[in-house]
Fold this protein.
Amino acid sequence: MSYVNTAVASRDFKYYIFDWDDNILHMPTKIRMERLEKDGSWRPVDLSTATFALVRSDGVNYRPPGGDWQEAFRNFEDSPKRDNFLEDTRAALARIAAGEKPGPSFNALRKTLREGRLFAIVTARGHSPDALKRAVRLFIDSVLTDEEKAEMMSNLRGYRQWLDGVGDGEFGTDAEELDYYLSMCRYSAVTYEGFKRRMAADPIYQEKLAVASTSAKPELAKEFAIRDFVEHVFHMLRRSGNLGRAVSIGFSDDDKGNVKSVSSYIRSELSKRFEGIKFVVYDTSDRSLSKGRKVCVSGQLNLPGF
Ligand SMILES: [Mg+2]
């Protein structure tokens, strides 16, 4: 393998947006609830996301601790005592190493990293971008083989040479080049305070939020995170003089509701605003599908070169 893979300059422009839970990994994070006992008392119970989905509308037998929903989802946020997202990712990866089936987009993330392509993690959790980034680093460390890591580094140097004009002998250490790559990717946990503040400060989303129902707000947040990444890719292409090239951006999520709302957002807004970009949505909700995903495409399909 070459030290600098110069062939990346003639490669397609494909980027990915990944939902994390049950799309990349089946995380062990528990929702803290209380359950009504026969004697009329409430007992604390930790529920998996799958069980929670079944009982969430059962307001008679289940309630968040003391009626506080934020408390119920405390494990989906950062804590000073425990690096929640990193440690839960570690546990999920250990189960895969022991033979458990990974999430449907696990191998797509692995390939994206190996190829050194830009990506975004978009999740309904409440962690800081750094917490998500630490988990991606752990994924690289423990999932990619040594050969795949070397391939990733060769590709990263190729992109640096081509897009940033870094010459032979000017590359940083592997750790520095990996830092640079990971800093170019996006990590959006949409219930994180910093994310919510950024969204509320955006003029378009200020207006959208003002008229949105409570249930539509998480979907709006995912929209905002997706638009953010698409703009980021667009600016990167413009800066490097590659706007005319055929570009595709994929989005994968195992939640049918998200797939539906993101698809309609792409059709009604994004594909019109970014005419040269092809959008591909992967619905990974059906675990019985062999590849675990269904594909729907929106946006410009008739560009030369496709
Ligand atoms: Mg999910």
The beta strands are 13-18, 31-36, 42-47, 62-63, 119-123, 186-189, 247-253, 277-283, 294-299. Residues 301-306 have pLDDT under 50 and may be disordered. The chain has two domains: 6-25+103-299, 26-88+97-101.
